[in-house]
Amino acid sequence: MKHKYHHLLGKLKPYIICHPNTLSALNKDYMGMTVHADHIYNPLLTKDFDFINRIIKMDELSFGPGGMGMPRWVLFDCALIPGAVIGFGIPANQLTSADQALLKVVGDDFVPLSMYIAIPNADGKSWFGHNLSSLNGILKEDLKGLGLLTKYYALGVLKIEKLIGATQWDSAALGLHLKLSPMKLLASHVSIHTHENTLCYESFNFYPEEQVLGDQRPLQIKTKEFTSDLVGIKNLQKRIEAGEEIILISKDSKQSVFHLQS
Ligand SMILES: CC(C)(COP(=O)(O)OP(=O)(O)OC[C@H]1O[C@@H](n2cnc3c(N)ncnc32)[C@H](O)[C@@H]1OP(=O)(O)O)[C@@H](O)C(=O)NCCC(=O)NCCS
User: Fold this and answer.
1) Residue located nearest, by CA, to atom 1 of ligand 1
2) CA 88, CA 81: separation in Å to the nearest integer?
3) Whose CA is nearest to atom 39 of ligand 1?
4) Between 156 and 67, where is the model more confident?
5) Are the CB atoms for 134 and 114 separated by under 8 Å?
């Protein structure tokens, strides 16, 4: 495992928020860590509301600037009750005073620094990835690697084998998602979404830990270059609707350039 992930796992602790009935289905012992009972939160109990308010704050900081902050009712109705929120946190007094002031936390308040939210789909076989947030780059604290570690960890805790997600072609997270698995495009131009350049994908055949968090190199797959401008994503949508299977393998270092399995 790369140093940055060891560093994060050494200082952060995992947490879970979900309806109590969901807990028994989760893998609470994963990656050599057991989620501590104090860090398992119930959205129906007043005593846990302070922690859940910190989730809202984190979402405002990460998604607010992109205009996709989550209303409280969406968090409750579409995530906390039907699904689960999983991430990593730290006691407030281990953060700098500037970070504590930004997050409005004090003393030994347990503070979430990342989250992955997934909701089980009605087919009983797959999940929908609803939110990935990390305060890396927003706080003074060194949190490099936290986004990828959080999604990897949450998929394991939730035992997800098939994941559907939606994201934007210009999202920084797309490169991160592609570190976890190839992405089969279910739609490349979801113009009914808040942002027109939204794609919807399905992930399965997740890569092993040694590849995601370690130094194991990915298998070389034959690919074709694709530029994700509006014309390109509309053309791809036509091909998908005509029945072609389009699989996204990786993101190029050049802006808007991707590699599709050929
Ligand atoms: C996207 C987000 C979760 C990334 O979190 P993070 O903790 O910075 O992610 P990581 O450090 O694990 O980065 C994983 C990889 O993505 C790359 N990456 C992260 N942010 C990036 C950015 N803004 N631009 C380009 N690459 C980026 C990292 O360099 C890293 O690659 P590496 O492993 O080759 O070094 C975080 O920035 C965030 O919360 N953004 C706002 C909300 C959002 O867009 N969520 C995703 C919705 S689909």
Assistant:
1) 173
2) 20
3) 133
4) 156
5) yes
Q: Which residue minimizes the CA distance to atom 36 of ligand 1? A: 134
104 and 209 housed in the same domain: no
If asked whether residues 156 and 224 sit together in one domain, one would say no
**Domain region containing 223:** 169-262
Give the 3-state DSSP-derived string for 148-200, with helices as H, strands as E and coil as C: HHHHHHHHHHCCCCCEEEEEECCCCHHHHHCCCCCEEEEECCCCCCCCCCEEE
Reported as a single tens digit per residue, the pLDDT across 202-211 is 999 999 999 9
Cα of 152 from ligand 1 centre, angstroms: 13
Q: CB-hemisphere CA count at 13 Å for 69? A: 13
Pocket of ligand 1 (CB under 6 A): 62-63, 132-134, 136-137, 143-148, 167, 171-173, 175-176
d(CA 241, CA 234): 11
Write down the pLDDT at residue 69: 87
Residue pair 232/260 in contact (Cβ under 8 Å)? The answer is: no
Asked if 83 contacts 117 with a C-beta cutoff of 8 angstroms, the reply is yes
pLDDT in tens, 83-120: 999 999 999 999 999 999 999 999 999 999 999 999 99
Q: Which residue, by CA, sits nearest to atom 22 of ligand 1?
A: 172
Cα of 208 to ligand 1 centre, how many Å? 20
pLDDT for residue 121 is more than 90: yes
How many folded domains does the chain comprise?
Answer: 2
Q: What is the pLDDT of residue 172?
A: 86
Where residue 28 sits, what CATH number does that domain have?
Answer: 3.40.630
